[in-house]
Amino acid sequence: MRRLSPLTVFVLSAFGWIIVLTGLWSQVSAWTSYPVGVLSHIALEQGAPMWVREVHFKPDNMEVDTTVAIPVPQSGGRWAEITVEASPARYAYGLPIFLALLLAARGKGRVPRAAAGYLLLLPAQAFSLSMSLLMQIVMNGQLNLRYLRVSQWQMEAIVYGYQMGSLIVPTLVPILLWLWLDHKFVSDVLVKGWRASLAPSAPPPR
């Protein structure tokens, strides 16, 4: 029976760890993602003070009361201020992906690298969460610049940031972070294994 290559072993192991760790993470994500909400809270108050009135924060939910008001249909000209909410864990699923890659590599010093990766992922996750909340404000504000009190380029920047934060950052950042922290394994095992798989096999003896 042909022995599996180190690259194949790594890929299978990584998928297995992702399944296991995602299940475990879903049980504790409210607490592991708590710092994400704290960073997002600070970012919103500093980056969008014209919108943020008050932030109500719990481990599993973040609610933002805004100063953005929109007219309420069929209410005799009354206006209502927008409130948006999101879970801090919504875009923090990159943590089990990062840890799965780290465990699949089976290298030394995994604990300090796991701790470093957890801390380094927090700003990226906070960015995604903040962009999600800002996008909710924009959508609830009916994309109306007068209601939102921002310029066109600011609204477009939020839309672009939301697309980055929801589609690219949550999955790409943990992979890039692992490639950086585990570069020796990547160079010695994965790259060499990939090159070996591309090399032409020797012809059978006659």
Describe the model:
The protein is an alpha+beta fold. 65% of the residues lie in helices and 13% in strands. It has 7 helices and 3 strands. Strands 1-2-3 form a 3-stranded antiparallel β-sheet, with helices on one face. The chain is elongated, with a radius of gyration of 23 Å. The two termini are 23 Å apart.
**Structure classification:** alpha+beta
Helix fraction?
55-70%
- Please give the largest β-sheet: 3 strands, antiparallel
Mean pLDDT: 88
Compute the CA-based radius of gyration: 23 Å
Neighbour order of strands in the largest sheet: 1-2-3
Shape descriptor: elongated
Q: Uncertain spans, ≥5 residues at pLDDT below 50?
A: none
Total number of helices: 7
User: Quick one: how many beta strands?
Assistant: 3
Distance between the termini: 23 Å
Strand content: 5-15%
What features would you highlight for this structure?
206 residues; alpha+beta; three-stranded antiparallel sheet; 7 helices; 65% helix
